[in-house]
Design goal:
This protein is of the alpha+beta class. Helices cover about 50% and strands about 10% of the residues. The N and C termini lie far apart (about 95 Å).
Amino acid sequence: MNSNTKNLVFLPALIILVISIFRTLLLHFRRRRRARFHGCASPPNLPQIDCIFGLDTVFQSLSSFRRNKGSTSLGQQFSTHGTTFQYQVYNTTKLCTIAPKNLQSVFSTDFDSWGIAPLRLFFFGPFVGKGIMTADGPFWAHSRALLKPTFSRGQISDLSAYSVHVNNLLTALSKYDGMDVDVKPYFEKLALDSSTEFLFGHSTGSLTPSPTLDAQAFLKAYNYGQAGIGKRMQLPQWNFLTRDKRFWRSCTLARAFVERCVTQALASQKDSTCKQPARLVLAHQLAAETKDHKDIVNQLLNVFLPAHDATAVALTNIFFHLSRHPNVYAALRSEILTLGPYQIWTFERLKACKYLQAVMNETFRLNPSIGQMNRIALRDTVLPTGGGRSSSSPVFVKKGTVLTTSFYALHRLPELWGHDSGIWRPERWLKKGGDELLKVGHWTFLPFGGGPRICIGMQLALTEVGYAVGRMVELYERVECRDPVWDFVEEWKLTTVSRNGAKVRLVRA
């Protein structure tokens, strides 16, 4: 090869290299200029040995989750380094914040600059596919618009269908009157039965003597698959790192279960001899919009996951605390008994029970179902606070930066919740006299997220949880703690649940 030929080979490569360097420098100077314009400063850095890949931080995080201290560990980091800090992980900047102004920006006022699809679609994809939980942009907006009618006020306020499942719950628990029982698996079955009827038009009946469609196997696969997603979220986005065959098998089983439910729901819709449900059925709504069976399954799983967990986890956590606070239970029971027979309870009457709402809010505060949430910057943007020595300067955020917020830590900030922020005390939610709920800043209490992506099923979850708690409190005079471990031990899957469940003794009135 002569010199002229060599020049012809290396010249294009040299041009590409020069252009690449020029574009990188141009982007760097543009970012610096924008950061100066907004008066930005860097937030505190988390001390790290490995400042490129952050492997020491990764190992510490994995160790915390293995020791069931994931939320606690992150909360301690916020206590030490302030409400906003950053570190490097897998050669990417990770920004952590619980500053309310920043959360308002990320979730609401600067919503379009932040997304979830580059993160969640990989982590959640094998289990739920593409849907409202894993998508951004027009696809997400279309999914939310499609689901919205199913969660309307008229649909939510109808307690008749849900009361059947609560009756089944109380019947199943009746064999434990005066005996010790872990109510967590029963709340999981309640959530499974109610959510499958809500989504598919028929229930799995897991609380009845004859459950349908192998509901118990699905519940086991669902719980294991959810735990697998939690583990995937702690690792780089490489499938070969998820070597657990049981995880992949659980995803397959769960999806096959939902596919059978969809097939049955659509068949019953076409069958004129089948009694059609009075409420809107999400599977029917989706089938009217698309004939893509896989898309229907994905959308339903994207709704089922939060719908099931919001109810089951909340009920478990509420009775975990009620069993440890007999005075609170007695006060709550006194309020519930003023409602009269459960047959006349309504959505509005339950919402008017201030002490019940305080008990629910305090549980969502101290033990939110979703302990932390991630976003990724879809473009360069600016957070309003967290930078500089005083942590009050704006923070410039590069495209691709991953942001983590901890609702666990936010809900325990002493400056927001007082010196006893780590204690479960429902009375903090009541104004003097106890007849009115205390109003808190929206961006300081976010058990269901906030902004355009606020949980679409929030009101449904609050209604179902309130009704189930009321029915149990009405029936049982006392709920006594029978857990040998007093403190709440977290188990982080996709949601944060009580590792020890809620072991209680139910004493009928």
